[in-house]
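mind reviewing these tokens:
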Amino acid sequence: MDTLEIKNEVPVVANDDFKVKNRKGEVVPPDKIRKTGRRVKGLPAMAKVEPFILETRVGSSNYIKDSLKTDRIDAYIKEKREKGLTNFTLMHVFVASYIRAVSQKPGINRFVQGQRVYARNNIEVCLVIKKEMSLESPDTVIKAYFYPDATAEEVYYQFEKIINDYRNSPGGDFDDTVKFFSYIPRVVMRGAMNVIKFFDYFNMLPRFLTKLSPFHGSFFITSMGSLGIPPIYHHLYDFGNVPLFLSFGTKYRKNELNDEGQVEKHSYVDYTVVTDERICDGYYFASAMKFMRSVVRNPCQLDKRPDEVKKDID
């Protein structure tokens, strides 16, 4: 199905036209948007039929593995830390680069719900964290919200606030909701989940639930490097609507010959991406992934906003 052609985005001038506004014309913060997305109706016939052929997100997954030379990235991270962003890491570079890719290739921020393709109104990034790095420390999922003109520093401060708030005061709506469901008898739980999945299929779940859910979002990122292991191919979830999962591993060094035949040491990191192929065709995905890779390799461009933000098709 990789030869499927889907119309590209329509460019707009870099202003606030791509942002959601209230009735007064004021820009709504990305975490306050009530409607997750709008249905994309301008797709070719095959793109509309494909979700009925490939019914599940797992069954529609494509797997990509690549590696990056990180010498320039490491210097960028060092510069940020010297400026006071003490916890700035490769994770922030990856997230900011994905957001920048959405600004130019908005089709990768679509999602499939109930065999229909939707364009998301904001960018929702999901991340699993622990209060502390120990076997006993429980996992939780945090979610950060952005518009596609966000800079690397805005990504950093947004995550720092969310992570520090959680670690200073563990719990919160997500943990409380999971704890509540854990007390429900399994027969009742199965029935409740069937009801939730029914409403999820029709994209009718209340917004407060999708904001809590780690299965609803634009992009899920996980660092295997913090665990000291290579990146895994993390599956997508059939429940919810996350269409893209990125995992990156620990850095390593390689000896290479330069043009003069001398041995040089360079740092590298491997990463994997799992995508839902139904949201856009293979050519579009390849273009978006190459663009994102070029941004990661040259992260200085993330210090300013994009010259223009492109809007997805209607």
Confidence is low (pLDDT under 50) at residues 1-8. The radius of gyration is 20 Å. The chain is about 30% helix and 25% strand.
